[in-house]
Design brief:
Blueprint lengths: L5 E6 L2 E6 L10 H16 L5 E6 L3 E3 L4 H9 L5 H8 L6 H7 L3 E4 L3 E2 L2 H4 L6 E3 L4 H13 L3 H13 L6 H16 L2 H12 L5 H5 L2
Parallel strand pairs: 2-3, 3-5, 4-6, 5-7
Antiparallel strand pairs: 1-2
């Protein structure tokens, strides 16, 4: 699919989404954010992808709000309308909620992440800033991707679902339910086989059985 303000690529079982408006330091705007969500959703629904990397092009990951775009809203007499509409809506899923339910997501900070440009990464499973940035991020995502997405989603459901749970009995109950469901999936059989045969498991091949 062709995008206007993001780039996508696949490296092994890792899908990479790059915010691509470096002239504006990848500041938040409706087009880029919509395309980013679409690409993340597509990778999350792709059974061949086990983990996702989110990064930016140029010298900033995301400079935060598109203040220049606010000028257009002021000129049109629409300042504050879009934010007020978002506040009234309880149907929109936040980026934190999206990342919490996705396959593992690694954020590669290629530069500054300011204000909301940092906030959008809070639901990620790993955030990294280093030399060889994208290679290192893909390497980390590939570790997650060795596991089948059914497994990583179950782990994330437990982590996020029990974030504010005060009852250890309820936590154990949820864990047992997830574990019972996991034991019925092909990946459980493959894990046992691989352990007995002393080899690396292939959960994707097992899922196709």
């Amino acid at each position: 699919m062709a995008y206007e303000m993001i780039l996508t690529e696949v490296r092994g079982r890792v899908g990479v989404v790059t915010r691509n408006n470096p002239e504006r330091l990848n500041a938040l705007n409706a087009v880029m954010d919509r395309e980013m969500y679409e690409a993340l959703d597509a990778f999350d629904q792709d059974d061949a992808i086990g983990a996702i990397v989110l990064t930016g092009a140029g010298r900033a990951f995301c400079a935060g709000a598109d203040v220049k775009g606010w000028g257009g809203e002021i000129s049109c007499g629409e300042a504050g309308n879009r934010m007020a509409a978002a506040a009234r809506s309880d149907s929109d899923e936040s980026i934190t909620e999206k990342l919490a339910r996705y396959k593992p997501v690694v954020v590669a900070f290629n530069g500054d992440a300011i204000g909301a440009g940092f906030t959008i990464t809070l639901g990620a499973d790993w955030r990294i800033a280093s030399e060889r940035l994208l290679d290192r991020a893909v390497e980390k995502a590939a570790q997650y991707a060795k596991l089948h997405p059914d497994t990583t989603r179950a782990v994330k459901r437990l982590v996020w679902g029990n974030l504010w749970e005060r009852s250890t009995s309820e936590v154990k109950r949820k864990e047992r339910l997830e574990f019972a469901a996991a034991q019925k999936r092909p990946g459980h059989r493959e894990a046992v086989r691989a352990f007995v045969e002393k080899r690396e498991p292939d959960f994707y091949a097992a899922g196709a059985e």
